[in-house]
Amino acid sequence: MTFSEAQKAIYIDFECSAKEIKRPAILGVLRPNRTVTHYVIDPDLADAARAHPDCQAATLSDVLTQLADECRKDETRLVSWSRFEMAVIRAASRVENAAAVLGKAHVNALDVVPKWAATYGAKTEKKKFEARNQLHQFFPIGGYRPDWRYGRAAPASWIRHVRAQMAARDGRYHVNRETRRDWHLLLTYNRHDCLGMRHLVSRATAETEKRRAYLDATYTVRHAGQVVRFKIGARMVALDALVARHDAMRWAHITAWNPGLATLSATENRRRLKALDHVVRERGYTTLPGDGQDDKKQWPAEESLFVIGMAQEEARGLARDFGQWAIVTGQRDQAARLVWCLNQGADPLAVGPTNAPL
After folding, report:
1. Which residue, 186, 250, 297, 344, is the most exposed by fewest CB within 10 angstroms?
2. What's the DSSP call for residue 344?
């Protein structure tokens, strides 16, 4: 799954009582416009839909048919956490055609997120993370911060409570304060499952693509009419000689272009690189011009600085100040290496002002 697909995907999350595949209570749907709709599927809960503006009472077959049309029309991916949602869809009656379309469009987020989380040292044993209700355990890793605590979440209990209270009132949502509280907690839980899932899948795909781009790129540094090209994982004798001529042992290749996921104008990018060069020189380092280029020409070259003598951690912190996700560093007689600048728990998808003195 690509980052572009993740941004345009539809994210779904069923809430059921005790995994009742044939009796889902609500279906949360997060569409590309980032709005979440809670479809109240259980007819015993239908009257509760009027308690929240984002709720709609609907039949499961109608909602699935609508989702299938949306996926077919726009070639949109349908994402869920684990295989449970597709099991509910396939168990539904009279939706064979819709189920086939949705099955073709479906992406299991567990095939995407745990592999990415492992790069931050997260323990993602398959058995432990098969259950849908483990989604929130990835939120701290991915930097998704819901505005409430998941520790006491009990969606199945909330459903049973609301269902029992409404049954005692002939299916009407004329319920007490505790029941209204549980209903709104259920909707909040469902909303954050959808939003958090989108955040995690988007970050996982974005970082995976960025890593691949960094690893596949060719980097250059220019000095006295000489152009030295190098790649991550390879040692270059010419690069070692260049660093040695400056009586140094280490180096860092840093850019200030296109922070995070932003695509800025060449004028703005060069202004940012000039600011980076000013900071580096104020710290007493020598800089040489360079760039990073995509061998497949899928993205334009980004101008950068080859900083002689700067230690890896200092370079990493400086790059982070300028909104960069990674840098390339090295030492004499060693291969160039990719150094990731993002921290576990950071939110790189929220592209905003950096800490750089621009």
Report:
1. 297
2. T
Using DSSP's 3-state secondary structure scheme, residue 169 falls into: coil
Q: What is the full per-residue pLDDT of the chain (358 aa) written as tens digits?
A: 999 999 999 999 999 987 677 889 999 999 999 999 999 999 999 999 999 999 999 999 999 999 999 999 989 999 999 899 999 999 987 788 999 999 999 999 999 999 898 877 665 555 444 454 488 889 988 889 888 776 678 999 999 999 999 999 999 999 999 999 999 999 999 999 999 999 999 999 999 999 999 999 999 999 999 999 999 999 999 999 999 999 999 999 999 999 988 899 999 999 999 999 999 999 999 999 999 999 888 788 999 999 999 999 999 999 999 999 999 999 999 999 999 998 766 676 664 445 555 5
The reported pTM is 0.88
CB atoms within 10 A of CB 111: 10
How many Cα atoms sit within 13 Å of 48 on the Cβ side? Answer: 32
Q: Characterise 157 by phi-psi region: left (phi > 0), alpha (psi -120 to 50), beta (else).
A: alpha
d(CA 81, CA 189): 14
Count the Cβ atoms, other than its own, within 10 Å of residue 149.
8
Q: Report CA torsion sign: 19, 20, 25, 29.
A: positive
- Provide the H-helix boundaries in 247-337: 266-282, 312-321
The encoded tokens of residue 222 equal 């220019």
Q: What is the 3-state secondary structure (H, E, C) of 87-121?
A: HHHHHCCCCHHHHHHHHHHEEEHHHCHHHHHHHHC
Whose CA is closest to 324, among 358, 355, 291? 355
DSSP H stretches of helix in 232-294 = 237-245, 266-282
The Cα 204–Cα 114 span in angstroms is: 9
Amino acid at 292: G
- In whole angstroms, what is the distance from residue 319 CA to residue 315 CA? 6
